[in-house]
Amino acid sequence: MCAERTLPKFDTASAKITKEEGLILYEDMVLGRLFEDKCAEMYYRGKMFGFVHLYNGQEAVSSGIVKALRPKGDYVCSTYRDHVHALSAGVPAKEVMAELFGKETGCSKGRGGSMHMFSAEHGLLGGYAFVAEGIPVATGAAFQSKYRREAMGDPSSDSVAVCFFGDGASNNGQFFECLNMAALWKLPIIYVVENNKWAIGMAHDRATSQPEIYKKASVFNMAGYEVDGMDVLAVNTLAKEAVARARAGEGPTLIEALTYRFRGHSLADPDELRDPGEKEFWGKRDPIKKFAAYMTEKGLATATELKEIDQKITDLVEDAVKFAESSPEPNPSDLHRYIFAED
Amino acid sequence: MAETLMFNALREATDEEMARDKTVFVLGEDVGHYGGSYKVTKDLYKKYGDLRLLDTPIAENSFCGMAVGAALTGLRPVIEGMNMGFLLLAFNQIANNAGMLRYTSGGNFKIPMVIRGPGGVGRQLGAEHSQRLEAYFHAVPGLKIVACSTAYNSKGLLKAAIRDDNPVLFFEHVLLYNLKDDLPDDEYVLPLDKAEMVRKGKDVTILTYSRMRHHCTQAVKEIEKQGYDPEIIDLISLKPFDMETISESIRKTHKVIIVEECMKTGGIAAELVALINEQLFDELDAPVLRLSSQDIPTPYNGKLESLTIVQPAQIAEAVQKMMEDRI
């Protein structure tokens, strides 16, 4: 069992969110949770295949970060655990579900699968299945933003890239190489480490000489912060500051969100190594329950309003399943399509 | 017409494409202030600035991945591999992301990027700097692979590669940078997928590429002395092969020798032989002959190194054997 770190304190009074913003965050987290629960159900019913990695427990990170971006024009880059990042980025749930069903109507037209969600329309640069390989790609998207402004003379170019990855990726060379380049060139990018303490069966403390990942930013002269990844308000508040800094040309930020996955690494993982006490500790810190309590206590929403959102999302996820089930599979005659740009 | 060395022809191609399209930029080790290890980008940073001639830290996998990200979001990166062998360190980004991502994304994105630089066996550079990489990358779906061989074709092909909407691996050869051609004053662009007829002939088809093209032409005098008339085709495109030009020639000569610099096992010729057998078996009067480099790391010693790659005399000898039905 990994020792628990002292979670950074967040003063909710500094959050200052409106009712609308709060409801957006709440709805997005509920969507992430209910979508993934439905995936587990569909996987066990034989409707989806391969490796399926669920995001339960980490919703505050995806919602808190991505909802700090513009709905259009910014970029999100993900990992193999990418369904919920795709949803937060605005990819319709039915297209993500259809992708998982391997259907032509999926966001990657059934060619990608669980670990390869893409949507050019929503700035989703993709789910990258090999650990850390998305970090350079996101860095390139951030470079593009700076390039358009400075080398092509387009003053309106101020897009920001967000790059999600896990604690395991923070030991990979691409992480260090890209932090160096992003800081060197002051790229508009936010690196978000979702430290859920486990890289499959490798406890973070067993893999990492300095487990406090956010501290690694300092050696690159980059801003680095840790945040309670189970607190969407804390994540969102920090993300807004990082996005503003990136957009102003002040460079990258490394955010380490301390979080936990409520399920195994994938649906094929027997999850035998994690201590029940650890799971219980984090289970009690459910980010959705925490934020629902905050919303009602602060008078930002009533319990009835939140229930209505829960119902709306339940229906939306059901519709996504119906859409996926009734969608056609890719046409076999298109087997070789999309190899080259002309196809 | 202006007499131009190959490295300058490549520089002109880069310069012209950068002037034509502001989304084109070059990145890699020492491409900016230093001007590239073979001076292909010399002084271009003075004209286009440090962002468009981006000197990168020595982090091949990461800067190749960055180029993929820039390409996904609308730029046209040209990566210079200081030595193409260094790209082994970037194999993941080139194979998984440059090569496969368009397909995996269901056509969401295109990846217009060029990866160019010096490859091949030089003069006693040692094994790591004397790689024959084309076969390593040959199986990766989604990549186009091109090998230039003259000052003239290097310029026209590089311009085409930069304009192409797909990832193109563009092999130059470390020993060919000082070849000269009179280049046209007017702009020209050559097709990436067309083989080049080097010498018309009727007796035997010799398929080759890159530096081995010149070993083949050096062998011609000897072959003519033997009384034979070889047809020499420079493949140019290693993926896909220009099977139209290849089959037209084979239908005429019915005999094929492939001369390559890459290793025999799993090489370019291995793939070509299989295709020729599949598509043109009935046209062949003899089994296709492969002249490849040895399946060994390139040795440093000069004598051993020259034994590693195919020499002109071996080509002439192979033609004679084939024509005398000794194969």
TrEMBL record, chain A:
The keyword Oxidoreductase applies. Its cofactor is thiamine diphosphate. CDD domains: TPP_E1_PDC_ADC_BCADC (cd02000). Keywords: Oxidoreductase, Pyruvate, Thiamine pyrophosphate. The keyword Oxidoreductase applies. GO terms for biological process: pyruvate decarboxylation to acetyl-CoA. GO terms for molecular function: pyruvate dehydrogenase (acetyl-transferring) activity. It is an enzyme of class 1 (oxidoreductase). Residues 28-332 form the Dehydrogenase E1 component domain. It catalyses: N(6)-[(R)-lipoyl]-L-lysyl-[protein] + pyruvate + H(+) = N(6)-[(R)-S(8)-acetyldihydrolipoyl]-L-lysyl-[protein] + CO2. Its EC number is 1.2.4.1. Heterodimer of an alpha and a beta chain. The pyruvate dehydrogenase complex catalyzes the overall conversion of pyruvate to acetyl-CoA and CO(2). This is Pyruvate dehydrogenase E1 component subunit alpha. It comes from Waterburya agarophytonicola KI4.
TrEMBL record, chain B:
Its cofactor is thiamine diphosphate. One of its GO terms (molecular function) is oxidoreductase activity. Keywords: Oxidoreductase, Thiamine pyrophosphate. The keyword Cytoplasm does not apply. The keyword Metal-binding does not apply. Residues 4-179 form the Transketolase-like pyrimidine-binding domain. Pfam families: Transket_pyr, Transketolase_C. It comes from the Bacteria. CDD domains: TPP_PYR_E1-PDHc-beta_like. This is Alpha-ketoacid dehydrogenase subunit beta.
